[in-house]
What does this fold into?
Amino acid sequence: MSQTKSAALVAQAELVRPARLTKSLESFAALRDGFNTDSQDRFRYYRPWAQALNAANVHITVRPEEISAATDAYKEVGEHLAANLSWPRDSILIQPQGSVSTQTLIRSPNGNEKFDIDAVCQVDISHVEAADPMGFFQSVGFALQELEAEAKKRCWNIPFTKQPFYLEFTPSVPMESVSIQTQGVMAPRYRAAQQYDKTALAVVDTPTKSWKTSNPAGMTKWVDDTAKRSLIQTVAVESFAVGRARADIAPVPEQTVEITDTLRVAIRLFKRHRDMCVRRSVISPETKPISIIIVTLLTACYEGLADLNRTFEHPVELMDELAALMPHLLLKIGNEYHIDNPTVEGENFAEKWNHDGGERYRSFITWCKVLSADLKTILALTDPQAISKRVHEVFGIPVPTSGDVGLHTMKPPTLKVPPAGRGLA
It folds into this structure.
């Protein structure tokens, strides 16, 4: 029986990944507290780790008032575009993309650093107009000039100088707006994956002055659909919610998620850990793993575990498994690293890794080692206060104590670098 691609990747990774860290907790917890081995008790003895990790997750969540301001910004830009573009108002659709749409947006360790909100500006234009991608791109930029928009490779950056965020709007058109001939030219390398072809878009790649396939809605759907698949056995799911972020305008989803939404929480915490590794000079900002790579590897890992019918007793146990498997899902085909976009065939998110002398690969592996080592130290602790303090230190969260917690410089452990997986048939 053939396996799905994600299942095959995970099955291969399971052969080489280290033992799950949480396995060592079970005998200790049962002995310490006289717990049985049923799921109710397991949820109880994982509670200190779950509460500490969830506190970190809550801390890095973007504040409700900032999300509210972002929804207002979306509305402002949407109305501005509708008023200044020559196309009918009902032909313009602005939707979030990236981390804000997948609910994995996080605050930076530096409280003064802006976070970015990505959006796609979709305009339903004619085939004739689509024949001039650069003209279309410049038309959107011209309409945004009063907002001090700056042209990037495929988007327009709007600074919003008085806000804690900036917006990046990517002009796009539905794929069917592009002529069949143009689609034929695009297709050899970038073709929308069949299961996500209905949401495929064409965006302007300004360096080549041509259209390129993109599918942000497809990526969001993939993450959403995968996150809904339950891998936790127990029905005694605890709630750690501390209040929901309010989002009155639909284009910006709320950003508060609970630890039981393990995929999204893992993405958020791992992204934060990466940022702390940059801040502590463990890896460089120029070669750090970009967010889309973390999202893709973790979602593929979660999807593969679900496809293989793997189950876990607690979200902490599942998060541990995701960390252990993640570095082993990287493919190496020939001499090139591959992290494939599941929604656009032929797009390799690790393409830059193959042209930098191995610097990004080494940064990725170094980060994965530190992440595993930090999780190991957290899970080796037994006292709830010690667990909480260590989680705060690892994820760069201030601890309200009289002592000086500070930021510890964390050096990568000297572990053997795991080889990237080979291509799967």
In short: Residues 64-216 form a domain with the Beta Polymerase; domain 2 fold (CATH 3.30.460.10).
